[in-house]
UniProtKB/TrEMBL annotation:
Residues 177-405 form the Aconitase B swivel domain. It comes from Sphingobacterium paramultivorum. One of its GO terms (cellular component) is cytosol. This is Bifunctional aconitate hydratase 2/2-methylisocitrate dehydratase. Residues 6-162 form the Aconitase B HEAT-like domain. Gene3D superfamilies: Aconitase, Domain 2 (3.40.1060.10), Aconitase, domain 3 (3.30.499.10), Aconitase, domain 4 (3.20.19.10), Aconitate B, HEAT-like domain (1.25.40.310). It is an enzyme of class 4 (lyase). It holds the Pfam family Aconitase_B_N. InterPro entries: Acnase/IPM_dHydase_lsu_aba_1/3, Acoase/IPM_deHydtase_lsu_aba, Aconitase/3IPM_dehydase_swvl, Aconitase/IPM_isomerase, Aconitase_4Fe-4S_dom, Aconitase_B_HEAT-like_dom, Aconitase_B_HEAT-like_dom_sf, Aconitase_B_swivel. Its EC number is 4.2.1.3, 4.2.1.99.
Amino acid sequence: MSIYNDYVQEVVEREGQGLHPKPIDGAELLSEVIAQIKDLNNENRAESLRLFIYNTLPGTTPAAGVKAQFLKEIVLGESVVAEITPDFAFELLSHMKGGPSITVLLDLALGADLAIAKQAAEVLKTQVFLYDADTARLKEAFEQGNEVAKDILESYAKAEFFTKLPEVAEEIQVITFIAGEGDISTDLLSPGNQAHSRSDRELHGKCMITPEAQQQIVELQAQHPGKSVMLIAEKGTMGVGSSRMSGVNNVALWTGKQASPYVPFVNIAPIVGGTNGISPIFLTTVDVTGGIGIDLKNWVKKVDENGNVIRNEKNEPILEEAYSVATGTVLTINTKTKKLYNGEQELIDISKALTPQKMEFIKAGGSYAIVFGKKIQTFAAAALGIQAPTVFAPSKEITIEGQGLTAVEKIFNKNAVGVTPGKVLHAGSDVRVKVNIVGSQDTTGLMTAQELEAMAATVIAPTVDGAYQSGCHTASVWDKKAQANIPKLMKFMNDFGLITARDPQGVYHSMTDVIHKVLNDITIDEWAIIIGGDSHTRMSKGVAFGADSGTVALALATGEASMPIPESVKVTFKGSMKEHMDFRDVVHATQAQMLQQFAGENVFQGRIIEVHIGTLLADQAFTFTDWTAEMKAKASICISQDNTLIESLEIAKNRIQIMIDKGMENKNNVLQGLIDKANKRIEEIKSGAKPALTPDTNAKYYAEVVIDLDIIEEPMIADPDVNNADVSKRYTHDTIRDLSYYGGNKKVDLGFVGSCMVHKDDLKIVSKMLKNIEQQKGVVTFEAPLVVAAPTYNIIDELKAEGDWEFLQKYSGFEFSDALPKSSARTEYENIMYLERPGCNLCMGNQEKAAKGDTVMATSTRLFQGRVVEDRDGKKGESLLASTPVVVLSAILGRIPNIEEYKAAVEGINLTKFAPIPTK
C-alpha cells in the first residue's frame, strides 16, 4: 500500500472524529502527491492539488523542501501545472516562511533570467526568516556587482518588509466571552492530560474549555460578523500556571484569524482580557501571535468616603463592578487613543496593551517577524555600508541618575544587546538580551520543533552556553503516544544541538529527570539568563523565565530574547525557624505574610522576586524560587553568599560530569564547556575578582517584604478552597492555612511526594519518617496511597550511596523498573507506597492522575482544577500543597494530622532549615 493510501485511511479515521486531514510534513508523502498532480489522468489528482496548495506545512519540514523545489520547477517552466501558474507559484513560496523556500527564491533571484530574478526579488523583499547562509549569498552577490542583490539589500535596509504592511486598524471591535470567573489557568485552555495532541493543532483545539463553550464562541461569531471574540477571566488573571503556546494557539484557533490561506490551523491575533490582567508568561505568548492582552480592571476595591478600602468579615477587600464585560458585550479597542470603549463611553486606558512595540507585533502578525526583521535590517545596512534608517519604535532606555541597580537590572545590563554604549539601564527599559541556557520539555517540545521548522532554523545559536531537552513530562508511562512522539522529538533536538534526555540511537539510558532540576544544575553562572519551556523555569542561580514553546524556539535559534527589564520586590527574613518546621513552610508563609502586609495586593505579580536566601544551597533554595511561579511572579533571583554559591557550583559540576559519563555529551562538547565555565566562575569568586552577585545598596524596589520566621508556628498548607462561595477565590495559591485549621480530621485519599519542588533531603526525610513511625508503632501501614517520585536519577544514585534508598525500598509496595516501564497509566491505587520513575508524575496530570474526587496532599505546585485530580459527581477533587513530612504523615494516617501527631513524627529529623544572613 502506498504512503498516500495510508494517509487517505488516516483521513477517513479523522473524518470520524470530525477532523480535517492532518497537515502534511513528510517528504515521501508529498512526493507521491506531486507525482499524482503530474499525472493528469490520476483519480486523486484534484485532491492532491488541494493537499499540495492548502495542506502542506511550511518552514524547514521535509515536505517544505519538496514543495519548494516543485514550485521552482513550475517557475522555470520545467513542470507545467495548469492550476499553478508561475505567478501563483511565487505566491505560494511567499507563504512558506523561510528555509527551503528562501533557498529557492535566492536561486531564482540570483539566476540568469532577469525577469524571473526581479519577480523573485519582489517576493524576497517580503521575507524576514533568513539565516547566515542566506544573507551570505546575498552579500557575496552584491559584492560581485549583482544589481538584483543590491535592490533586495536596499529594500531590507529600509525595512520595507515591515513598512509596506497594512497599518493596524484604528478601531477593533470585540464581543466578550467570559471564559471563567477567577484566575483562568492554561490548563483550562490546553489541559495537561491532552498534552500528547498539542502538535496536532486542530485535534488539540477540541479540548479548549468545553465543547459547550466552543459552541458559544461560534454562535457569538455568527451573531457578530466582523468582530473578534475576546476571552475574559472575570475577577481574575488570564493564563496563570503553565507557559503554554498551545493555550494561546487554541484561543487563536477559535477566536483569531488565519495566518495564511495556505497553512491550515495556524491562527494569529487572539484578544484576551482579565480583571486582574494577563499572566506575564501568557502575555508573552500572546505577543508571539500578534494578539492583544488587556488588563480590564473592571472590578475595583470599594472604598469609603475617606478613601479607605472596605473589607468583609474575612478582612478581604470588597470589590465592586466598575463596568460590565458580561458575555455578549460589544466593546471597541481604539489603537490611536489607546482606550477601551463601550459605544461612546470611555471605559479604561489600555496603553500598556498597545505600546509602540506591541503595535509592531500586531502589524507584523507576531513578535518573531519583528525580531528577525530588525536583524535583517541591521545586516543589510552593514552590507551596504550605510546607517539603517529608524523604522521600528526605539527601545525604551531608562536611566535614573544616582540610583543603583537591583540584581535583575545588573544581569540585564550585562547581557544586553544593541543598547546605547555605556548606558546603564533600569527597570522599564526594553532590552534584547543574550540567553545563556535554554530548556525544552517533552510535552511542549514537539511544538518547539514545529516553531523551529516554521522559522526555518536548523541549528542552535552558537552563543547559547547550553540547552537541554527533557523527558520528564512523559516519564510516568511509556505508552503508545509517548513511543510515537518522544523518540522523534529527541532526534530532532539532538540533531539541532541540544543535550537530550534520550539518545536517538539508544546508546545511553533514558533520563527522565525533571527539566527544572537539570537546568538548575547546568546553570553555572548566577549572571546567566535562562529561558525554559515551562512556567517553573525558576532557577536558584541566574534569572530564569518560563516561556512558551515559541519563545523557547526563538531563544534556541537566535540566542536572544526581548523583554522589558522587570521591577523587583525584595524579600528578606528575620527571626529563626522552629525545629519542627520545614523550609517549604517558609515558602508558603512568604505568600501569606506578603498578602497580609499589602492588604491583599499581590505585589509579586509580574515582577522579579529578589530573595535574600544566601545560606541555602542551590537545591534547597530552588524550593523557594520554584514556588515563585505560583506567586504570579515573572521570575526570581536568589542572592547567595560566596561560599554557598561555590558549594552549589561544585555540586553542579559533579552532576554535569555524571551526564558526560552517561554518554550525553554532544559533538560541540557543551557539557565539558559548562564545567570549564563553572571552574572559571569559582576561581573568580575565590580570588575576589568577581564576588557573588548582589544588588547595589541604593537600588530601588517596587516593594520590600520582610518575612518573620518567628511567627511561623505550624506547617503551612496551600489550599485550593474548592467550596469557597466566591468562585474567584477558588484554585488560587493565595489561601494559605496552618495545620490546626483542619482539626486533625480532614480525610486524605492520596499523598504525593515529588515534582520539581522536592530535593534529595526530602527523600531522606521520607526515609527517616518511616523509620520514626516504625520505632513508635512497631509497623508502618498506610491508610492512603503514598506516591513518591524523585526529581532526578542522580538523587536516587546519591540516596543509594548514602543508604537511604534501601529503607525506601523496604517500605514500598511498588518500585519502578526502567527495563519494564509502565505501558498504561495507573487508574487505581492501593494503600501502599509507590516508588515511581523520576519525572513530573502526578504534578503534570497528563498520564498519572489521582482518582476523581480525591483529596490529595502533595508537595507539588499544582492545585488547579482537574490537574492532579478531577471532580466527580457530588465531590470536587482537591489538591492541597504542603511540605514532605505533612504529606507522608497524611498518607500514613489517611487524614491531615494534628500538630501533636506531626511533631512526634518529625522528632529528631533534620528538616530543611534556613537561617537568614545576619544584618550588618
